[in-house]
Amino acid sequence: MKKTAKKNFFANLSYNTWLYNFVSARLAQGKDKAFSGIITRIAIASISIGLAILIVAFGVLEGFRNTIHDKIFSFVGHIQVTQFNSGNSYKEKPINTNTRLFKNYKNTLPNVETLHAFSMKPGIFKTSDEVMGVLLKGIGTDYTQSKFTKNMVKGRFLKFPKDKASKELIISQKIAHKLHLKVNDSIYVYFVQDPPAIRKLHIVGIYESGMEEFDEKFVLSDIRLIQKLNRWADTLVGGYEVFINDFRRLDSVQKEVFEEMEYDMQMQTTPRKYEEIFDWLTLLNTNVKIFLWLILIVACFNMISIFLIMIMERINMIGVLKAIGATNSQIKSIFLMRGIRLIFRGMLIGNLVGLGICALQYYLHLIPLDPENYYMDTVPIDWNWGVILTLNLLIFALILVILIPATFISTVRPIKAIRFD
Fold first, then answer.
1. What is the pLDDT of residue 32?
2. Quick one: 86 exposed, middle or buried, by C-beta within 10 A (0-12, 13-18, 19+)?
């Protein structure tokens, strides 16, 4: 008996679904002969345009955020650990690499991707007719080159000889332009210290990030060169740079790193160090979210009004269906199926248009940008399929909205409805 009842239930459900779909399809076939034909096209257009705009907006937002993150984190780590220093000068207090944090981070900090040593030292570039202050960042063999090579425009990366400090430099395109330098040129670098030091160094690469914070002053060099200039032992460096697996976990990883630090160490996160850039990204994110909710609210009102018009135009049909015994829920299901059809068509067109625009920009770079203001020369696009799926689910949730005007069906009386004109 239970199997028979269960079989009959699914048979009735399947038949009812087919019937609702059939009637709603018949309504769609007659759309060109009725006023609702125009309304239907407006509904599809509003959904498709809204979804397409949202896909493009979030694609650009994710592209901006990820591109700027990649540029920043190709120069500095997510977290910098240095010796405690109450001053703000570039003169560093050395920190030892024989610490628990540096030696055992792979075992104690599972969310940390890499951790490497670095040192900073100010210097002065001098050519025959120009002088310019720069900041040398010393790195070693533990530095992840793949993070930086995306910024390289000419030449190659540094090489690290085993027996001595490298005399190679990587400078920015902006510095090269100001001082009229190119790859394979040599330059004298002056270091203000006691006693003063002069080194003739060789330019092997030129980078361009588009970010003035780095391009105006940063020069990459061998960390052993800075150790030698500072008269430091091989185990002394300027600090550690910590790169984490997931930027969204920065707060929790920051606490974990703090627990592993020595008492005389201090820590600074990159979002705090470059606060103005990350505040700008947060503002962009807030604006896009407001834009999202405005579009969804407008789409909700559009669907409610369009659904009411559809019901009012078919009021005679509702009266006839009720007269022959159809229930309110059955009639609501017919119009609900009609609404689902409209939303699916709008979503299909919206996805095609939105993803198409993103693809054109991603592959052809049709829309340029001013690098001085936006840190990049073209509008970036990021394919975040999780966000795209979420946007589609939010648009699909409009089905719940069209249930509101569907309650009007229960108030329709067959006698008045059949006579309605």
1. 45
2. exposed
How far from 348 is each of 48, 270, 378, CA to CA, in Å?
A: 7, 41, 28
Long-range contacts of 85-90 (CB under 8 A, 24+ apart): 85/266, 90/120, 90/121, 90/122, 90/135
DSSP H stretches of helix in 30-76: 36-73
Candidates 259, 223, 247, 241; CA nearest to 114 is 241
Q: pTM for the whole thing? A: 0.76
Helix (H/G/I), strand (E/B), else coil: 118: strand
The SS3 assignment for 172 reads strand
Residues 204, 158: Cα–Cα separation, whole Å: 7
Q: CA dihedral defined by 73, 77, 78, 84, rounded to 10 degrees?
A: -150
With a CB cutoff of 8 Å and minimum separation 6, the contacts of 213 are 274, 277
Closest by Cα among 359, 395, 383 to 58: 383
Amino acid 295 reads: I
Amino acid identity, position 21: N
Scan for tokens 């920043």, then name that residue: 72
Q: Are 208 and 172 in contact (CB under 8 A)?
A: yes
pLDDT for residue 4: 47
Cα dihedral 313, 317, 318, 320 in deg (nearest 10): 150
What is the torsion angle, in degrees rounded to the nearest 10, for the CA atoms of residue 143, residue 144, residue 148 and residue 153? 90
User: Do 229 and 197 form a contact (C-beta atoms < 8 A)?
Assistant: yes
How far apart are the C-alpha atoms of 348 and 369, rounded to whole Å? 30
Both tokens assigned to 337:
């199926």
Q: Count the Cβ atoms, other than its own, within 10 Å of residue 22.
A: 12
Q: Which uninterrupted H or E stretch holds 319?
A: helix 315-323
- Which residue reads 């990366």 in tokens? 157
pLDDT tops 50 at residue 229: yes
- Reference 337, options 22, 11, 14; nearest CA is 22
Residues 123, 223 contacting (CB under 8 angstroms): no
| Tens digit of each residue's pLDDT (9 = 90 or more) over 47-98 | 898 889 989 988 998 888 888 888 888 888 899 999 887 555 556 788 999 9
Cα–Cα distance for residue pair 184/262, rounded to 1 Å: 42
Smallest CA-to-CA distance from 374 within 202, 154, 209 is with 209
Nearest to 242 by CA among 218, 227, 230, 258: 258
Tokens (6 digits) for 241:
């740079």
The dihedral formed by the CA atoms of 80, 115, 386 and 381, expressed in degrees to the nearest 10: 70
The pLDDT of residue 282 is 85
Give the tokens for residue 327: 């229930």
Task: Name the pairing type of β-strands 95-96 and 236-237.
Answer: antiparallel
